[in-house]
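Need residues for this backbone.
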């Protein structure tokens, strides 16, 4: 299935790792956009259609919480599924991100299978992704 993924993480190494893990998890045909923080992520969304967002939380300039908050305010972006991938996995943080509109949460580090399972679940709930 071909679809567009926006990876929002301040670490270029982590963004490359996520792309690699996605390919290992079977998403070879995905097209990837990258952003180093939430502001860059919103700018990317303004010029490119995205099917799913993978975002970190702890980033400079605009963190993942603020990014999701802004994302869900915009009717054009409110239905784009978002998966949080973060080292911060406290119950409070996970609950807050889900309340802000994330459809899933994966703790770093993670095996390829965990990402595959979450993306299959999330993408299966949204008609038209990859079409």
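Answer:
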């Amino acid at each position: 299935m071909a679809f567009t993924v926006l990876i929002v993480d301040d670490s270029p190494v982590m963004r490359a790792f996520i792309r690699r893990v996605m390919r290992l998890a079977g998403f070879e045909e995905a097209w990837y956009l990258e952003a180093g923080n939430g502001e860059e992520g919103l700018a990317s969304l303004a010029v490119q259609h995205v099917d799913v967002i993978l975002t970190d939380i702890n980033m400079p300039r605009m963190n993942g919480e603020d990014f999701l908050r802004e994302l869900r305010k915009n009717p054009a972006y409110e239905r784009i599924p978002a998966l949080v991938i973060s080292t911060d996995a406290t119950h409070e943080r996970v609950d807050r991100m889900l309340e802000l509109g994330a459809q899933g949460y994966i703790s770093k580090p993670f095996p390829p299978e965990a990402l595959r399972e979450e993306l299959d679940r999330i993408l299966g709930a949204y008609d038209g992704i990859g079409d």
